[in-house]
Queue: 2 jobs
Job 1
Amino acid sequence: MRSPDTPDAADPGLSISALERLQVQVHGQEGAPPAGTVRSDTLAAEVPVALVFNGISHAVMMATPRDLEDFALGFALSEGILDRAEDCRGIEVEAIDARAAGLPEGMPGIEVRLEISTRSFERLKGRRRSMAGRTGCGICGVESFAALDLSAQPVAPRDWIARVDLPTVLRAFAALPAQQALNREAGSIHAAGWADLEGRLLAVLEDVGRHNALDKLLGRLARADLLAAPGFVLMSSRGSHELVRKCARLGIAAMATISAPTAMGVRVALLDGVRLWGLCRAPRGVLYAPGAGAG
C-alpha cells in the first residue's frame, strides 16, 4: 500500500491537480538583479471538498484533491457518521467548475457523494452539527462544549503494544520522507502513515490538512480491512486531541508524531488507552502515554 508515484496526479476522473505550478519572483538571492529572478514554483492545491451524504451536504473541507474516496470514508468513520465501512454503499467524486459551485473564477470545487445506510443517515440528520472546515481545523462548527465529544472511547488492550518502541517508531519516521511525494514538490503538505510492528512503512497519505491526511489513511485502512491489524499511525504534525480521538474511535491503539502533542492530546490518549509518542526526531522520542496493555 502506497501513494501513487506521480506526485501531481489527481484522482481518476478529476481534472484538478494536487499541485499547481506558478511563476514567482524571488528576491534576495546572491548575485540576483535588484528586480529579482523569475522562476517556476510548485505549490500545494487547496480545494473546497463538499461531503454529501444521501444528497445532503454535511461538511465542506479544504483539502488536497487526491485520495478523496479514502478521505470521505475515513472522515465518515472517524466522525462517527458510520459505524463500519460497510455502512457506505458507494462513493462518487465529481469536480464542479467555479461558476456552478458559486466560487470565484479559477477556484473549482469537488463534491464527494456518499450513499450510506438508512440507520447512519437517520443518525446524521439528528445531529445538530454543521461544519465549514478550514485547513488545520478539527472542530469547527460545534454548538456546545458537549458537542466536542471528549468522553472516553477506550481501545481494546493489545498484548503487542510495548513493541511500538522508540527504535520501531524512528525506523518508520526515517522512511517517511521518501514516500512524501507531494511534500517533496511543494513543501507544505502533511502526511499520515501506517507502519507495522517492525517499523515498516506500509502506506502514506498526504494532504494540506493534518486531519484530512489522517482521515485519508483511516479510510484506506478501512477499505483494506486493516483497522484491527497490529501497527501504528505516524503523523508529520503535532499530536492534537482530535487526531488521537479519531484513532481511538476506530480502534487504532498507537500513534507517533514528529512534533509534540498538546496537553489535551495526552489526556485523551491516557483516557482512551492509546500509546502516544511525540517529538520523534532521531535519536530521541518522548513516550507521553503507554497505551492499554503495556503493563
Job 2
Amino acid sequence: RDVTITVCYYETNMMIDFVSFQQKRGEGFTDHVDMIFRLFLSSAVWYLKRLKQISSLIEKAKRNLDREVNNESLIGLSRLQDSLTYFITSIRGNETLLSKLKFKLQIDELDADLMEDVNIEMAQARETTNIYSNILESTMDTYSSIINNNMNTVMRTLTSVSIILMVPTLVSSLFGMNLLNGMETTKYGFVIAIVLSCTISGVFWWIFRHKRLI
C-alpha cells in the first residue's frame, strides 16, 4: 500500500526527476489517483523538454544543409523524423490510457483540476509534435527537390559539354575517311580541320551559353 514499483526497459530521466521533484515538494500524494495524474503530468512535461531539444537539432541540421547538402545532415533529419513518429504514437497511447482511467478511478475536485492540467499538457505535447513533424517533412521535401534540381543542372551541363567535345571528333572523323574531300593535296588541310572544329564548337558553346545550358 505504501510502495509503488515502476518497470522500464531503459533507464529514464523522467522517473528520477519525478521522484526528486516530489521529495523537494515535501507534500507527498493525497492518494494513488493524485500520484497517477502527477506521473502523467511529469511525462507530458518531459515530452515538451525533449521536443525543444529536437527542435534545436532540426535547426542545427538545417543550418548545416544551408551551407552544404551532405548525407550526414540528411540522415540526422531522417532519424529525427523517426523520433517524432515514436513521440506521436506514445503521446496518443498516454492519452488513450488517461481517458480510460477517468472512468475507472474515483476522482475528486482536486484530481479533476490536476487531470485538466494533464490534458492541457498532453494536448500541447501532441500538437507540438505534429507541428515539428510537418515542418521536418516539408524540410526534407524541400532539400530533396534541391538535390534533384542540382543533379539535373549537373547532368544538363555535362550533356552540353559532351556535345561540344563531340564536334572536333566528328570533323576529324569526316576528314580522316579514305574518301576524296578536296583537301588531300593541300598543306593547310590539318589547319583547316582544326579551325573548323574550333569554330563549330564555339558556335555550339555560344548557343548553349545563351540558353543557359552551361
